Amino acid sequence: SWAFVEVPRYAFYMAALITGDATKKTPYPLFWLRYSLFAVLYPTGITGEMTCFLAAAKDPAFLAMLGEGKESIMYYFIMFFPAIYVPGSPSMVMNMVGNRKSAMKKRFARPVPPPRGLVWPEVTEKNGKKSRSSTPTAKGILAAAIGSVNKEMGDKTLNLKNWRFGYVKFLKALVNEQCKSEEACLTAAKAGLEKAHSTFQFVAPDGSACSVAEAMSAKNASKFFTGYIKGTKSRSEAKLEIPYKDKNLSGDELKQQVNKWVDYGTIERSCGDAIISCIDNPEWLDLRDKYFVLLGAGSAMGPFLVLMALGANVVAIDLDRPHVWKRLINIARESSGSITFPMKEQQDTCKNDDELYAKSGSNLFTQTPLIKDWLLNLYEGKAFTVGCYAYLDGALHVQVSLAMDAICKELTEKRPDTSLAYLCTPTDLHLIPKEAHDAAEAEYKNYASKLYCMFIRLVSRGKLLTKNAMPPIEGEGGPFYVVNGISIAQGPNYAMAKRMQHWRAVVARSRGCIVSSNIAPSTSTVSVVSNKTFAWAYEGMPFFKPFEIFAPETSNAVMSAILFHDLNNEKSAVHPKQKLSNPNELFKWGSFHGGAWRCAYEVDSLGEASVLIYFSRLAAPYAKVAVAVGAIAYAKMSGMF
Q1: How far is Cα 118 from Cα 372, in angstroms, rounded to an integer?
Q2: pLDDT at residue 639 greater than cutoff 70
Q3: Contact yes or no for 336/231 (Cβ under 8 A)
């Protein structure tokens, strides 16, 4: 069986060398045999080996190899090997099942479509080939930001070899440079944004390309039409309700829970005050004359459901996919609010709902300039709050973030009274209150003496469970306390996308815009928990006080409450009239970080330890049973009963 496996395998390798493409150009019969024969030959090969072991266990000559009287040693020795096949065989077979699935998917994958819309620029690799790799461009953007205030550090950023794992050092350097003064902070932010807008390309349908900045300033011949749906539900008395652990909290009960979060360290006091202020001012929840532009309206972390329930006027931007608009429009119809959205044709030309869904929506990648034009001319004289909620994985996240940024830039510069809203991640570099820093110091002293933490630190040689509290940074208006919540597993593209949002937030605020940019908690969204490692880590993280992982509906409600507070309370730090010691202190206030700022250890150093805690809890009942069975067996052997 093993020989039959190798014959087509090496023939496949030879064909791959000749054709130059193992996936698509090898003869299909050979390709099929390479990835299918295992289904028969692996079981027969394993069965043959098992037969050999069992036959040896019954062979007198084999059993007598160590001499007379030692046959049992040889017997147990040879029978040990079949036991390995119990866990080993399924993993071998399933590995090949996975390889087959992956190979077939690549073999029959559709050709990659030509680039359209907002794309990474072409770069020349060392082998002379051109590609749209994200690494050189992302390094260039970060280097431009740092280099605008520290040329030497900017040059070091460009020369970084291991970008995938080395970028955090330079993000820290950027924050350090920005803390030196207000001017340094804004200079770096503007330089990073300008580099991104001038470097990324926008490819037109005819294949011609220009920079994103040029595309956004060009005149466009085509345009969107406007769709509008008014909800049929009458508006009821508004009050703030937050779903939490199978209950809808409101009023005094909600205040009590907010204070519990504050006391435990899950949120900052400024965040708790913002939520309580929203409870005490129910008029803030009257959104009938408010207009919210949601870029990524259907996002799991977006406030669409909350806004519809409160009667807001939502301008929704999301993909032109019928199922997306069927959901959004049906929610709007059953609400007291309204939804306005871009359409390919006039709304009155739609004969039924299916046509309405099919003709609605837009693409942030390929239609960025058209979305900008449509929004600039929509509801003139009305103040927009523009929320950036679209999310994608990997390099696409940077692209969609830049597309949203290009729209935000135009609206904040050309529409008076436009405000911005972002959801910051706790897995980033932030300035934090001294109280949070001191709490992290105290938690570290507490956990450092725990046996489990000492063991993890020892076996990882100090790489895991890294101290969260960092030395303060000196600068004008300082010292500034910082937390490093960056997760290496999320990658440099995620960090770059979030950093661009930071840059736009501080730049827009410096120009007089209200910018609500608060840290949202770690949330068990589908996109996150679909990654099993993250899901396991989330289950174990609450072991480290004061971590708490929140459900999406809770996160949506609390972050919406903080947004309403920011838009209505002129004493909030988000208002440009409020003086900050440094522009990056914007992210210091109103943080619902879920415990990340006050935990003993950095978020990125908690993952493995949290996973182990999760599995140890799963194994605990079985371990107790095993101990009980062992105790009974020992008792019987000892003659105790």
Answers
A1: 14
A2: no
A3: yes
- Give which of 537, 631, 636, 541 is closest to 594, Cα–Cα: 541
Query: From residue 579, how far is each of 94, 429, 508, 509, 583 by CA, in Å?
Result: 60, 21, 15, 11, 9
- Ramachandran region, residue 558 (left: φ > 0; alpha: ψ -120 to 50; beta: rest): alpha
Task: Please give the Cα distance from 502 to 524 (Å, whole number).
Answer: 23
Helix H or strand E segment including 368:
helix 368-376
Helix and strand element counts for the chain (H, E): 24, 16
CA distances (Å), origin 213, targets 197, 387, 418, 613: 5, 21, 20, 49
Helix (H) or strand (E) holding 627: helix 607-637
List the catalytic residues.
42, 49
Q: What is the CA radius of gyration of the chain?
A: 30
The percentage of residues in the chain with a pLDDT greater than 90, rounded to a whole number, is: 64
Contact yes or no for 362/246 (Cβ under 8 A): no
Please check whether residue 536 is in contact with residue 441, taking contact to mean a CB–CB distance below 8 angstroms. no
**CA 376-506-528 angle, 5° bins:** 85
Collapsing DSSP to helix, strand or coil, 17 comes out as helix
Strand, coil or helix: 224: coil
Q: What is the DSSP string of 475-507?
A: -TT--BEEEE---GGGHHHHHHHHHHHHHHHHH
User: Which amino acid, residue 160?
Assistant: L
In this structure, the strands spanning 313-317 and 338-343 are parallel
Residue 549 has a CB neighbour count (10 Å cut-off) of 20
The answer to whether the CB of 635 falls within 8 A of the CB of 641 is yes
The span from the CA of 12 to the CA of 186, in Å, is 58
What predicted TM-score, i.e. pTM, was given to this entire model? 0.83
Which percentage of the chain shows pLDDT scores above 70? Answer: 96
Instruction: Note the pLDDT of residue 249.
Output: 94
Task: Please write the tens of the pLDDT for every residue from 262-310.
Answer: 999 999 999 999 999 999 999 999 999 999 999 999 998 899 999 999 9
Q: Find, among 273, 226, 199, the residue nearest to 378 by Cα.
A: 226
Q: Using CA atoms, how far apart are residues 347 and 288, in angstroms rounded to an integer?
A: 23
Reply yes or no: is the peptide bond before residue 115 cis, omega within 30 of 0: no
Residue-by-residue DSSP string for 86-140: HHHHHHHHHHHHHHHHHHHHHHTPPPPPPP-EEEPPPEE-TTS-EE--HHHHHHH
How many Å apart are CA 102 and CA 472, to the nearest integer? Answer: 48
Other Cβ atoms within 10 Å of 243 Cβ, number: 15
